[in-house]
Amino acid sequence: MYTQVNGLKTFYSAGNGQFDPDQLSVLFVHGAGMDHSVWVLPSRHFARHGYNVVAVDLPGHGRSEGEAIASISEMASWLKDLLSTLGIQKTAVVGHSMGSLVALNFAANYPELTRSLVLLGTSTPMPVADMLLNAAEANDHDAIDMANIWSHSSFGQMGGNENPGINMTMSGQRLLERSAAGVFFTDLNACNAFADGEALAARIVSPAMLIMGDQDKMTSPVSAKKVADNIENCQVVSLSPCGHAMLSEQPNSVLDALKTMV
Q1: CATH code reported for the domain at 2-259
Q2: What integer pLDDT is reported at residue 198 of this predicted model?
Q3: 142-166: per-residue pLDDT in tens?
């Protein structure tokens, strides 16, 4: 579905559901270089169970117009504008990787708009290796290769997808290859520059959950647990075997966890 946010055409998936102001809402925020399609399973589930679903393409991503936003705080502010445009007054916010930082920032700064918070594959700070950042800035395909390999566990790299005929690593590669030039670097740079995570986490007042993969090489379990420790009464769900690409490696386990919080 399309809407206009700050004068720009913006796409979001409603999971084939229809907006109803009397329903609960859930907002899904994708990671660096990604788009709404990573949320297909949870989007469809919650739409079919009576939720307003907004799995958005951030500006410059997927089918949304505009330039990629350069900072996490600006992305969170943009989400506020999106919800205002859609007429959603309160929502669960679910973010993966870069999207988890955006969701954290949103929940801390707009508690009156946040019903619950779920962070997938997160850490604060979220440093990006120089070799990955430099390759992304040069629009070198090595950046996609590095991020894609590091995002999958040994299980994910060997196959084993629950959906027959789907190759997890190739699907991840093609998704990143679809992003426009400069978008992946802008996203990674925003993650690398994010520095106030501990303070933001301490300000969270909504119910919260953190989902992590036991083989996550991008945002390690140790780093993820530190985020949870800074959020009061944050539930922690550990997935195994699972890397950073948990939405493709453990989709049903992620959905099971989301159903307890969203």
Answers
A1: 3.40.50.1820
A2: 96
A3: 999 999 999 998 776 666 556 555 5
